Amino acid sequence: MLKPGEFYQRNRERHPPALTRDYKTSVSRSPQYSLISLQNSVSETTGPVFGHNDLDPMDRDLIYNYAQPGESAIGERIILHGRILDENARPIPNTLVEIWQANAGGRYRHKKDTYLAPIDPNFGGCGRTLTDENGYYYFRTVKPGAYPWRNWVNNWRPAHIHMSIFGTAFCQRLITQCYFEGDPLIPECPIVKTIPDPGAIEQLIAKLDMNATIPLDTIAYKFDVILRGRRSTLFENRLEGN
Amino acid sequence: MPQKLDYLAETPSQTAGPYVHIGLAPGAAGFDIYRQELGWDITGPHAKGERIRVEGIVMDGTGSPVKDVMLEVWQANADGHYAHPEGGGNVEDGFRGWGRVITDFETGEWGFDTVKPGSTVGRDASHQAPHLNLWIVARGINIGLNTRLYFEDEPEANAKDPVLNLIEWERRRATLLAKKTERDGKTVYRFDIKLQGEDETVFFDV
């Protein structure tokens, strides 16, 4: 049996470390011992597979997926689109992408969120889709509002959309946040600043995309996500690997 | 000057935050939106093997339960096959082997029903003892934590497991063993996870 390719080691220096004192919640929730490094086994190189039966096409449209008939979510209408690629720049097709976010006022539809901004009755705040055969995905939603949070007394989260991506293997599992180009709160945010590398922070900022914007309708941002790369399976007709 | 390698870099992780449920388990956030939420049935109806329940709590460094955590489970079926093209073999109809676990917001307790997995193939044709792969995200966790749950009633397989044996601090291996109990004739495994402090759970860089 040919040995399947393993995933490249995760570069932990681009990720936030577990303990980041200025993001206070991490102080008591961060492991103190080193992680035990594990080479890949089938437990890491496999992962759940999803199909079109798992979701509905409408799930990706947050403007309408929770709205009453004839209504729509309030706020600046945006398209969020991009590609899911691996570190070899190969597209990851048919992978599940899930997002969640606050509404245009900065309030989440969550029983634990008590911020004084109003709930939008026509906005749930979550969506999901599968990437197409070339790794492309898109959502339609409203731009989330900034909101204050309890860390230091006067911390505000920049506008952001949470994103969860699977890839093809459990070791590629990733949750991240997408920020928006030009937001002055980005460099102020203790959660953004958990990432030590300024170049890595740039990678979390979606760029305004006028080409994908629908004139007189919906503005667009482009956000590509890179998951871990993998050495190729050695095929008999491609012994060189990658 | 040397040539460029031109690999892309993995997108950095950010915390899932306190409202992870909105995206991944909206019912827990307090509203229904999708035709079906994902991850609530790990095994499907046709799975072979012993039906078990797993319960636990995630604790922080102060000994307090983490009440907003979300765990994902990834496991093989009773034959040791994962539901994946490279998973080692066929699985039963409807067996996905993947689940999402949400804590009770008041107590921090969580639990899920599944089947006990079989041994899986490890590296270099070794055998891995039956185990569940867990991935933990929450507010304050900057990058998801990977760990494994092994079963304390598999002492022989555990003693030979290549991953458990990799843990140099032998007394820390016990943090990965789920304790077997019985309730109403059903097997329940208890697995408490400690993010920090005495008996901190072993987490892996996979």
Automatic annotation (TrEMBL), chain A:
Look up keyword 4Fe-4S and say if it applies.
Answer: no
Where is the Intradiol ring-cleavage dioxygenases domain positioned along the sequence?
Answer: 46-229
Keywords of the record, alphabetical order, are: Dioxygenase, Oxidoreductase
Organism domain of life: Bacteria
Q: Which SUPFAM superfamilies match?
A: Aromatic compound dioxygenase
Comp. bias (Basic and acidic residues) = 9-24
Q: Name one GO molecular function term.
A: protocatechuate 3,4-dioxygenase activity
Residue ranges of region Disordered? Answer: 1-26
Residue ranges crossing the lipid bilayer per the database entry: none
Reported EC number(s) for this entry are: 1.13.11.3
Q: Which residues form the Protocatechuate 3,4-dioxygenase beta subunit N-terminal domain?
A: 8-40
Family assignment? Belongs to the intradiol ring-cleavage dioxygenase family.
Name it. Answer: Protocatechuate 3,4-dioxygenase subunit beta
Native species:
Roseibium porphyridii
TrEMBL record, chain B:
Q: Which organism is it from?
A: Roseibium porphyridii
EC class, as a word, reads oxidoreductase
Where is the Intradiol ring-cleavage dioxygenases domain positioned along the sequence? 54-82
Q: EC number(s) on record?
A: 1.13.11.3
Q: Name one GO molecular function term.
A: protocatechuate 3,4-dioxygenase activity
Task: Identify the InterPro entries for this entry.
Answer: Intradiol_dOase_C, Intradiol_dOase_core, Intradiol_RC_Dioxygenase, Protocat_dOase_a
Query: Per the similarity annotation, which family is this?
Result: Belongs to the intradiol ring-cleavage dioxygenase family.
Task: Give the record's keywords alphabetically.
Answer: Dioxygenase, Oxidoreductase
Q: Which residues form the signal peptide?
A: none
Q: PROSITE patterns under this entry?
A: INTRADIOL_DIOXYGENAS
Q: What is this protein called?
A: Protocatechuate 3,4-dioxygenase subunit alpha
> CDD domains, per this entry?
3_4-PCD_alpha (cd03463)
